[in-house]
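Section 3.1: Structural characterization of target chains.
Under the original work plan, the team committed to producing a structural model for every single-chain target entering the pipeline before any wet-lab resources were allocated. The record below documents one such target. The sequence was received from the expression subgroup and is listed exactly as submitted; it comprises 280 residues.
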Amino acid sequence: MRRKSDDNRNKRTQKNFGGNKNRKPNFSKKFNKPKPQKADKKPNDDLMRLNKFIANAGVCSRREADELIKTGAVEVNGMMITEMGYKVKPDDEVRYDGELLTPEKKVYVLLNKPKNFITTTSDERDRKTVMDLIANATSARIFPVGRLDRQTTGVLLFTNDGDLTKKLTHPSHQVRKIYHVVLDKSLHGEDLQKIMDGIRMEEGVAKVDKISFIEGKAHNEVGVEIHIGWNRVVRRIFEKLGYKIEHLDRVSFAGLTKKNLKRGDWRILERDEINFLKMM
């Protein structure tokens, strides 16, 4: 005698196979297996956390960027973002205090330039350039800020921060440079006064901010502080008065010095140095 449960089980089986008692399931049918997908990039691979984007733009550290985001100082595509962990796409427009940011990580390299290197990115005459000296500093494309002529030594800054470069080279910001000048003869007092009063050049009157003899040195060595950036202006000032510069060394540029940096060596700027430059 069949139990009721067996009848119910048979009915369910018949239903699953079309309700036809004589029909047998075709287990020989082949099912197509899904094709393996290519290892394409995941949809989120191109996304970057907003705080990292801001840090890479050279504004501040990631932790500081989080604080900026919290205060509502950052906009993405015109919308204020205060969400921690927010991610941006490569084509998003990110602004901080209205200024457009770029995701490229900013690099700042300080070189103590030696003689016989020209300040250019390349040279048709295959002469040595300052780029040869900082070739191993970074893989980013960085450029010298301003110029030092071939025989001038000392502080030279490199960066890919275009906004900072414009600031440090534009006359309106009056960025200070300090030079150690060694002359072929002693500087007369009246000539020192003439330099302080200003020397007429083609571009106008070249005035130094400060000039003085160096304590403990002969009077053919002087220190000059100047902010104008005319081509070879320091050399031309002394040449105008009949002096020849035997050695010209830039010891300071925008507050940066070559302290503890040997001639021909370079170093990456510290965070506080970068912040100082940006506040100028």
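The mean pLDDT is 86.
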